[in-house]
Amino acid sequence: MDKVLEVKDLELKFVTRRGVFHALNGVNLELYKGEVLGVAGESGSGKSTLMLAIGGLLPSNAWVTRGEIVYMSKNIIQELVKEGDTKYVKKRNEKALKKLNEKLQSIRGSKISTVFQDPMTALNPVLQVGYQIAEAVYYHNPSVLARRILARYKATKDDMREILSILKNKEDYNEKLLKFIKGKNLEGLEEQVLFIWERNDLHDIKKEKLILSLAGEKVPRTALPFLYKIARSNKLERTPILSRFIKRILIKEGYRKAVEILSILKVPNPEKVVYMYPHELSGGMRQRVAIAIGLINNPEIVLLDEPTTALDVTVQAQVLDLVRSIRNKYSSSFIFVSHDLSVLYEVSDRIAIMYAGKVVEVGSKDEIVSKPLHPYTQSLLRAVPSIESEKISPIPGEVPDLRNLPKGCMFHPRCPYAMDICKNQEPPMYNLENGHKVACFLYGEKK
Amino acid sequence: MKLWLFILKRVIFAFITIIGITFIVFALLHVGGNNLLLSAYINPRLTGPAREQLIQQLTIRFHLNDPIYVQYFYWLQALFSGDLGYTNTPIYSGPVTTAISLFLPNTITLTIIAAILVWIIGIPLGVYSAVKRDSALDHSVRIFSFTLYSMPIYLIAFILIIIFGIELKILPYAFPINSVLASNLPWYKDGISYPTHIILIDALIHGNLTVFWNALLHAILPSLTLALSILAGIIRILRSSMLEVLDQDYVRLARAKGVPEKVVINLHARRNALIPVLTLYGYTIASLLGGTVVVESIFAYPGIGYWTTQAILVNDVGGIMAAALIFGVVFVIASLILDIVYALIDPRIRY
Amino acid sequence: MIELERNSELKNSLKIFFTNPTAVVGFIIFIIYVIDALIVQFAPWLLGIKNPNVLQENFVNPIPLPPSAQHPLGTTYPGIDLLKAIEAAIRIDLAFSLIIVLGGAAIGATLGIISGYIGGLLDDVLMRITDIFFAIPFLVLAIAVGFALGRTYESMIIALIIVWWPLYARYARAQTLSIKRTPFIDAARIAGVRDFKIMIRHILPNVLPPIFIQISLDLGSVMVIFSTLAFIGLIPNASLPELGYLTSLGLNYLQSAPWAVIFPGLAITLFALAVNLMGDGLRDVIDPRRRSS
What we know:
The complex is a heterotrimer of chains A (about 450), B (about 350) and C (about 290). Chain A has about 450 residues and is of the alpha/beta class. Chain A contains 18 helices and twelve strands. The longest helix of chain A is centred in the middle third of the chain and has 25 residues, at about 240-265. Chain B folds into two domains: about 5-85, no CATH class; about 105-315, MetI-like (MetI-like fold). Chain B is about 75% helix and about 5% strand. Chain B has helices at about 5-30, 35-40, 50-60, 70-80, 95-130, 135-150, 155-165, 180-185, 200-205, 210-245, 250-255, 260-300, 305-315, 315-345, 345-350; strands spanning about 85-90, 95, 190, 190-195. In chain B, strand 3 (about 190) and strand 4 form a beta hairpin. With about 290 residues, chain C is an all-alpha fold. Chain C has helices at about 1-20, 20-40, 80-120, 120-135, 140-150, 155-180, 185-190, 195-230, 245-250, 260-285, 290; strands at about 75, 80. Chain C starts with a helix and ends with a helix. Classes of the chains: A alpha/beta (about 450), B mainly alpha (about 350), C mainly alpha (about 290). Chains B and C meet through helix 1, helix 6, helix 7, helix 12 and helix 13 of B and helix 4, helix 5, helix 8 and helix 10 of C.
């Protein structure tokens, strides 16, 4: 499997008036293509901070002192770390972060997207939901929208009839469809056609009618050349008045795409929902909107920061189902952050456990749950109430103060197996079989 | 609750408030045992036996020999039937209702221009002061608005006059229009223009662009004074509201989506930040009316405020009573309109 | 033990206040004004003022003169030395502002606490009354009331107190309501403490700090409004040193002697600025939420 993302020895601190918080203390993590990686940890473990770092959303008081985040063979946080830098200079840090933000503009939201924890606060209350989804496409891939419009404009009813005959053939229509569309220069049509065809809430006859109606879309004459230009170059139009006009057309198309993706996410009545405001929707629907924003550009990596924490348990289950089902449709890799191991077990392929800013254990979900190696993981599993067990054993002690981390292994004050060496040295990550890694001296000899 | 229900409630409340204002004015008219009511309704042009007769009629009409609550009722009746008494001031003598129709338009002109100025100057300053927090721009804006806030209106007016009118000589600072120019206009007499009584519009109606421009220039300094007097409050609220909004998750998400920073600020952030500002904006615009009292006197601009100061100086009861009522009523109506606009803009209130 | 805690809390608060540079500056300016007022009150001869309640007119040289060694701030019509006049006027304006604000605060806060504590119909009625008062621009209300009461300084003060009390009533009521819900009020009631005592002993001390801040902020606003009223001539010519009145004296000489009009205005502005900064500083002390920003 290919590695899609790698975090190498990332060290990050937050500089505030109340002290310097050591949020990430040497994080090592790998993400493989197409997998769902669960990241577990309590509050203060650094999991959210890690998401911010990967997603390029660090606040201005974030100070990266060491490490790399490698995406597409490039270290995307290169500007932030300077060799031999030992002091925090506010202005310099802010400038570096600003430059980083500009550089990451093209990646954020299109190749690496983030889904936030609380959909109520993550969605702008005064903008329509459809607009907020359409925006994500408009600013990254306007050519997609332009091509869709142009494809409908160019297609004729005959073309559509041929497409219908391909679809009705039932075997392997995907390839044949794509070949046909490519041949007729109608890129952008396939997803619209497939969306209608694969809906299961419509009668076949209705589907045919809808597909036929896709042909011959009317486009204002003045807009045409610009749409062609955008379809080719994927750059937005800049002239002052005209750009507004074009933007309106493209955003409208974005609303259509939003309807498609919301329908895939099983939102009922998506045509109505796109015109609504966030406060008019239920929690589950809002979270689906947030996920839609995260997925609509077909990103390579989707970061989900506790997407289910703010939701009721029943809705939680729905959302988890959803995440599982979209895996097959989109070839993205997911990082799913949660403090709830049971949730992670449901969705992930592999699980990483974080504590006090470090990854202490990582492995396949079955290995982690059935053979937890790190004492912290073990106590986490014991601390989860289950229907069978009667005892809940909370972990003794408290989460360490990030301003004042303990020496050596950060878990040693609370670890039932703490040895002398744990108090003085930080354990390295030991590679065990099946890709199971753990950072604990207990497994030192087994190298 | 539904939109129309909300509006209905507000309208009823506005109505009650207006009644309350009449009550206060009525109480004031009877303070100290004086029956000022009478003097407010006597046509100043009447003298001698005609005057005596009028007093008799008024006594009967307003039931002045009956208990006070009866008097209140009849006075209210007179108000609602459009009779607000007479005013006798140097600038105008006659029925109050006519005076209002002559002077109110000028005040409204100034208020509207001031409102536009506040919007044009205040919004960008407030937004950028928040976006570039703690920068030189931010600090200077804050110092500037803090100082303005502490200045009495007349001082702002004088400083503007001295800088622009006297030293730089680029803006006029008295009267709504150049008197030489005015003397040649058949449709402009004694500070009042016809037919709409709003000089700017009348100039356009009569197709006289020179006059229009001249009138506009004359209106700038008074409007600017009004605008500056409330600018500070607006900027302060907008800045703190914007700071709060910029911290919100949805702003971060917008950036995470790749929305360019300019759009993040001007669309996503600003639209939310403006919501609390709007309520203040409306309130302060409406209370500009109080400011016009000073500004119009300084700039000799014939509006309601100017009329009010004149009324004060010559002890014209009719004028003062009318002024109190008008200012109160206009304020209440403006607040009502504002509340409705607010409900329309913030989708959360709509349902 | 409790004594010690109280003392150190006071010290702590003072410390926070004095680390805020703008607040300290405001405080110093405020003190200067107060000292000036006291000197004029008790020892006016120190500043060369013969009668602090009357402006020293000089008809020999009535036309305003620019600032010079003899008249550091110049003179205004008719021949009044601005520096002395402003010094005398500060005492008057300061006194008036204090009376108005303290009067309004006392009345308003009392009504607000009672209304908030007792609640019910009384509370509703009071709320509506304050709403109506808020609906009228205060300048107009002040004019109307002042006019009705006769155009003297005393009636102006009463007028402004009437304009000002609703603000404090609202403020105090809001505070009272939020305290009313705390359990220790209920506990006191169950223990049989009489309502009146509750209001004084428990509610008042909690209402006072924000009211206090508001008072310090309002001192500036009231002085501005009061001088504006005097300026437009609501108070007839009484030759009393008052900053607004002083300003109006120089009206005709705007072009030739701008200082006559600017300096009295600046005196007010400076005071309002100082008092605002001071109030902000006090707010930082009393409202702990603002400290950590």
